[in-house]
Structures are given as C-alpha cells and as structure tokens.
Amino acid sequence: MWNSNSDALYGLALTFVHGVGSAKIKELSQKFETLGDVFALPEKMLVEKCRLNPSAAKAISGNGATLLRLAEREIEYAQKDGVRILSLYDEDYPSKLASRRGDTPFFLYYKGATSLNSRKIISIVGTRNMTHYGKAFVESFVADIAKLYPDVLIVSGLAKGVDITSHCAALENGLDTLAVMGTNIGTVYPAVHRRYIKDILAHGGLMTQFQYQSSTDNKNFVERNRIIAAIADVVVVVESKGNGGSMYTADWSHRYGVPLCALPGDYTRVQSEGCNALIRSGKAHLITSAADVDEILSGNDSLRDLRNPVIKTIEPKSPQMPSMSDLNLDGDKKLIVEFLASAGASHKDIIARHLGKPIAEVADMLFDLEMDGIVRETMGGEYEME
C-alpha cells in the first residue's frame, strides 16, 4: 500500500539509481508493502527478487544512506520553493498522462494552483523562429478558444516563438496555462522567460519530470515533448520545420492517439514544412480557426472517422501473408502483421481487441511498424500493410 510520505522518500531515492526507471519503481511499489523494504534487501535478493541489474542492486545495497540523503534534499528544495512532488498515485497527478504512457514519469515536480484534471487541455507547439503569420494565428486562436472553453488549460513548453506566445495569449485571455519544462523546476530556459514565470504561476503552473539535481540535457526536451503530447485532449502544431522539435510532439501525439491539428502554411517557407507534411500524410487535421478544434473537443460527427472510428465487423479476405522471416518480427508485432495481412485495413481499436491488448500498447507497436515501413496509416485512420 503506497504511503505518500515514507514511500515518496524511498521512491525518490530510487530515481537516483542508474538503471531504475519509472516502470521499475511502479513495479516495486506494487510488489512490496513499502518501498523501504527494497532498501533492506541484500544485493543478491535485489537481483533475484526485484529483477534489478547487478549494478543497480549494488548501488542500492551499498549506498542506501547516500541515496536517501539525495532524496531528502529533493524534498527540502521542493518545500522551500513551494513545489509539490506528485507521485503516480497522487490524485492530482495528470490522469491523461498516466493512462497514455506506459513509461509515464513516476514523479512530477509541479508548482502552481491550477487543476491538471477534469478540464479540457490543448497543447500548442511550434517553431522558435515563428513568423508573423504564426503569431497572428496563435493569438486569434487562443482568444477564440477562450470564448468557447473558458476553463480550458493551454499547455506549451516555455520555449521561444510559438510556445511563449501561446502562454502569453492564454494569460491575456484569462485562461490558465501550464509550462512543461525540459529542465529542473528551478532552471528557467531560456532565462529571458523568467519575466513570465510570476504570471504563469498565478494563472497556471510549471511542471517537470526532472530532479532539482539533474543537469540540462538536450534529450530532456524530447522527453518534455512526450508529456506535452500525452497530457492533452488536442495537440496543435502551428509552425515547424520538417525536422523541428515540434515534430517529435506530433509523433508522440499520433502514437498516443491524441487528436493532432496543424496549421497549413506557405510551401516556400521552411516554418511550414512540418505542418504541411503532417496534413499531407493524414496524421493531422487541417485547422484555420478555433472552430476546427471545437469540432474535435465537442465530438462533431464530421471528424469521427479520424478521431473515434466506429467498430465494424471484419470479413476475412484472401490471405496475403508476407514472409515473417523476411520481416524478422516476433511476439505481438508479428500477430499484428498477420492480422492485417488476413483481415485487411483495420483501426487500432479493432486490432487491440483482437490481440486482447490495451490500445496504447498497440498504438506503440503500430508506430514502430510504420517507422519500419511495414504498415501505413490510411487517411481514415486505419492501418494496412505497406
């Protein structure tokens, strides 16, 4: 049974052990009465009973006191700054994030007073090198969405360009806004955006998965983008290069099954490459106004094919089985390919039902198969053999 005080301390201590991720901490929290029991086990038992790798077991067994001091320091920093450390079991932990990510962060550092649940959430992302066209769209879009959904939470990543424009537009229109950070919560990046923090905290909040004692790393911003996608009801990409950071957010949105929207742009401008590609591939809805997103949030039938497909009865077709040896697949991915080869194009919820697997798990595997060029997604949101 999770104890919010003692288990939080031991759980935080485990985050400092290389090779012990969020999934393992969750597993251990469910296996033991308290996470403190883990620290009482000898090295051999940590390997055998907890299925930890030898180096992680050695770190816990030989440096438990040091790990706990590091965790205590995290709690002290958080208390001093008025930051809440939310565990996966905390009722204020973002429920959408918890349900969509199999590797969801076990702990989140959150400062603010806004609710992260029981409301519509729109994530807006885009390039740092925003054009006047992109800026005008963000400002008009947020102003109009505020009239339709006065309680909506606008989420972005605090970066230059589209991100900070989205935060500011939310504040100007009386909306709460959440900044998901790619740094620890005490490090504002870029530093020039410190001037916005007071207002964001008063009408929203800051959130990160990174410890106070973690250093800033480029890969952290990719992880940040996964949270921005997973926490949302809708993700809106305003402007992005074809290989821009926002495309990672778009990929994760697509992978998690979160409705994705993109603003079409001038094909001669590099800032429009990503959005135009997302629309062309059928992964994103084309939007030009808040009304387009309202159709998704309100469940308008005109978008049902892409967003919430109707389950249909599948009539078996003539087998067109690819060579499994050539594809070098195993496990559930092999079962997916076999199913699509025999049944034809199918939505991921049908595939999930056939396999008896969660939709999020199946979406992850379909994404991998799509990246490998084995399957493709149709304009109607079905998957078929490439």
Strand order of the largest sheet: 1-2-6-5-4-3-7-8-9
Tell me the domain tally: 3
Low-confidence stretches: 301-322
Give the averaged pLDDT, no decimals.
86
Taking the sheet with the most strands, its summary is: 9 strands, mixed
Q: What class would the helix/strand composition place it in? A: alpha/beta
CATH structural class of the largest domain: Alpha Beta
Output the number of helix runs.
18
Shape: globular
**Estimated share of beta-strand residues:** 5-15%
Instruction: Based on the coordinates given, report the CATH architecture of the largest domain.
Output: 3-Layer(aba) Sandwich
Provide tags for this entry:
Arc Repressor Mutant, subunit A; globular; alpha/beta; 386 residues; 48% helix; 18 helices; 3 domains; two-stranded antiparallel ribbon; single chain; Rossmann fold; 9-stranded mixed β-sheet
Question: What does this 3D model show about the protein?
Answer:
The chain is built from 18 helices and eleven strands. It has 386 residues and is of the alpha/beta class. It has three domains: 76 residues, no CATH class; 196 residues, Rossmann fold (3-Layer(aba) Sandwich); 62 residues, Winged helix-like DNA-binding domain superfamily/Winged helix DNA-binding domain (Arc Repressor Mutant, subunit A, Orthogonal Bundle), CATH 1.10.10. Helix 7 runs parallel beside helix 8. The longest helix is centred in the N-terminal third of the chain and has 28 residues. About 6% of the residues have low confidence.
